[in-house]
Amino acid sequence: MRHITHILLTVAVALCGTAARSTPCMLPKATAAHFCRLLVCDGEGNISPISSYIRSHQTSPSDSLTQEQMFTTYVFNYDGWKTLRIFPHNAAGTVSWYAATDTLPAGMEAEHRKYIREVFLHLLPEIEAANWQTVDAYIDRMLQYQTTFGAPQHPSTPSLWPAVAIIAILTLLLLTAFAKSSS
Question: Of 9, 66, 70, 145, which alpha carbon lies 20 to 30 A from 34's?
Fold first, then answer.
């Protein structure tokens, strides 16, 4: 699987190379890392932060660029955003993930359809203009969208704090009782 991913990435970059902008936009390290906090669905149903995904599927970073910068260069300069499944949709308790160019479910609300279709179209000019504060604000909204509409697929685990507090109190009582009995 890993070799196939490398081959597909190489072919995609080669094919998209002619369609690339004349001067590729390079995100600063912090902004690229911020973008790579977004969750992505890998097509096999696995959901993970982009940073984890690229670390397990890409080669090591270059001398001057981080893996996140290399990945975001592909995403924003070679139209890689068109197939990046980062938009969750929760229908009847089932979360499905979509890319901006995927066929979206007919039952999806119009505002969600519009957001999924247009967010990158608004983000790209901000990147080209190097408006990094605005770019980070867009990424924050994308992270918020994922948090709001990509409900956890696993039941939450109960908090351990009540049990820890009870054990601490019992231990304190036992130590106090032991100290009084040995005096």
Answer: 9
In angstroms, the CA 44 to CA 144 distance is 24
CB within 8 Å of 12: residues ≥ 6 apart: 74, 78, 80
- Helices 110-128 and 132-149 cross at an angle (nearest 10°) of 160
Terminal C-alpha separation, the chain: 69
Report d(CA 150, CA 40) in Å as an integer: 11
Specify if 27 maps to a domain: yes
Evaluate whether residue 147 is within a structural domain. yes
Partners of 41 in the β-ladder? 47
| pTM (predicted TM-score) | 0.67
- Inside any domain, residue 182: no
The residue behind tokens 């304190």 is 172
How far, in Å, are 1, 25, 85 from residue 4 at the CA level? 5, 27, 18
| pLDDT, block means (10 residues), the chain with 183 residues | 41 40 75 92 86 76 79 86 90 89 93 95 94 95 92 50 68 71 70
Residue 102 lies in a domain: yes
The residue segments making up the domain with residue 108 are: 2-177
Angle at the Cα of 128 from the Cα atoms of 127 and 133, rounded to 5 degrees: 35
